[in-house]
Amino acid sequence: MEGQRQSEPQVTYCYRHPDRETGISCVRCERPICPDCMITASVGFQCPDCVKGGSGTGHAPSASRPRTIAGGVIAAGDRRLVTKILLGVNAALFVGVMIVGERLVSSLVLFGQAIAVPYGPVEGVAEGQWYRLLTSAFLHQETWHFAMNMLGLWFLGPPLEAALGRLRFSGLYLLSALGGSALTYLFSSPGQASLGASGAIFGLFGATAILMRRMKYDMRPILILLGINLVFTFVWEGISWQAHIGGLVVGVLIAIAMVHPPRDKRTVVQYAACAGVLLLIIAAVVVRTLQLTA
Q: What range defines the domain where residue 25 resides?
């Protein structure tokens, strides 16, 4: 019996955050550290205490500034800043919709081609209003829709923002939103309206799964949650499966490029992946526009 107990895998917790499981340790002191505490070194990661005391000057000996697992600069101050800004933009538009009504919705929602509304025609993406691909991803009408998406953003956003850094997290969110909108535009009826942050949220789901796999965390909770949301995607009437799948695929691809490339090629791979995804999105929109305007 004793031999069996010794063979079981040992669960370790961050020495600064005892409630967080982790499979990564500081390369200098070997204490377990979570994504919020990881600072990139020449080989592996160091904890904040070793970085502060490593050179006697308050800086890591191998880098001028502490870095996240994705190579981003560890932000000073509020590590939820970008998440809060995104929440604020979504909330501001939601309040605007409640005050202004359908006119604001029709000016920002995703349409393929021009449609008629009581106060005149509304032009869509095919007529050159490409901004709708992004504005529609910040737009909500129903309270439950807004609440569910913002709950997902608040749950998934801060850990990803801390692990990737502000700039990389912003890119992940916006590209996931555009990916969801592009796939919706590509496959939906040209007169079908689409709105909501669901594409971006599914991108965060995908990125979280990739990050947890990279950190050797237990992936079952996030996979179960993602699976439940995918079931609702295809069985609940009125949900745009294109937005969910488009955002999910983009989020997975960007996250792989963020956390898996070799350290010496990390920045190049990340920029190339983001640029490649953006070009694919543009290509999909161009193809669909040519189909609708031919």
A: 2-54
